[in-house]
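Lay summary. Proteins are chains of building blocks that fold into shapes, and those shapes determine what they do. In this project we predict the shape from the chain. Here is one chain we studied, written as its sequence of building blocks.
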Amino acid sequence: MISVRNPQQLLNGSRAFAQILFLLFFVFQACSPKVRENKKETTVNQAKSLPDKVKVVDEKVKPTESDSLNKYKKTEPVFTIALLLALHLDSVSANEMQDLKRSRDTNISLDFYQGLLMAFDSLANDDLRLQLIVYDTKHDSNEVKKIFKKSEVKKSDFVIGPIFNDESVPAIQFSYLNDKYVLSPLAPATNSSFNSPYFISATAPIELHGRKQAEYILTTFDSKNVFILSGKSTAEQKYEAAFDETLKNSTKKIKAIRAGTSIENLKVLESLLKKNEKNIIFITTSSSSSLTRIFQKLKLLANNYDLVVFAHPLVPKMETLNFELLLPLNVHTSMAHYQNSDILYKSDFYMNYRKKYNTEPTEFAVDGFDLGMMFGKSIIKDGKEFGKKILNNLYSGLNGKYNFSEISGRGIQNNWLQIVKFNNYKFESE
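And here is the predicted shape, written in a compact code that computers can read:
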């Protein structure tokens, strides 16, 4: 299972390469507009126009600073954030960046980075004082381990990243051993992976999707049966187990009837459906090919039966799926990031992003902006106690909401999900 959501559109290799060339000017040192510091390394003077206009300061040349800035630096503390992204800066040629995996990693990382910086930049006038240090994980857990051994990362006040699930184990261990908050901004880390009270997951895990969908069925429908078409992967099994457990623990008893996804099993399903009542079908598989086969069969059955389908949360992002098949099926699912297009298009962020980058922000850029605004405001208000203060404090962003709570002392998790229904070729909130 992909650890972060599929991108809406991949950049081509040449564009990724051009952006990589820009980032090669970094030694990965960026500061908010109100803070600059000398380092032994080469540093970048972060201006509001970043990343378009960058001034590289040679390590032997002391930057010119105003008296007011020097005065500020003596009296105001600086909050340091280490940012871990899969930028693949070792790919220094356009041909290498044609590799789809590396190009995808880089696109997601750059989009998130740009959205995050726009949030921090917009909060500078609200007294956000921070230093941002960026590291390239190369989407390699061994590289992540090396980064977490760096003294400046250990001295940082907050770590954001890495962004992929298969890089998260060193991050969890680091947060536990150093009592330091680490945010997983995009990857839907599963509950069982948490072993640190300082690890924060901004995306609800698959188990919560199963629970949320079951709760919605219990409160919305009067059906006595739910037909479950089971998947095979570990994540799909966790999804189904959470759904099943929620049904069993409810005072409103609904019987779960299981079937497979083969053609033969779908024929058995047809014999179990009831006319003149709603037939609820819960599909746990996230395989596009399996879903195509299932939806083709269900579309035929919809001529004779009233069907309500609950599908895997990855379905809205499946570019290879024929969504024509979904139209007669009353397909529902849950989304950890639900974007209200009307609100997004009217936002200052959307207009400023288009003006700055000559393109619309991807969902990863919006995620970066939302998280930057939420944590930036918390840092302004609560300083290094921000991790405790974000609990049970609902924050509404452009790409959904954040409602963090502790998980039995093992971590902090965003519990917010939105039930959506497929209608007129798009998923809309219920």
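What the prediction tells us: The longest strand covers residues 79-85.
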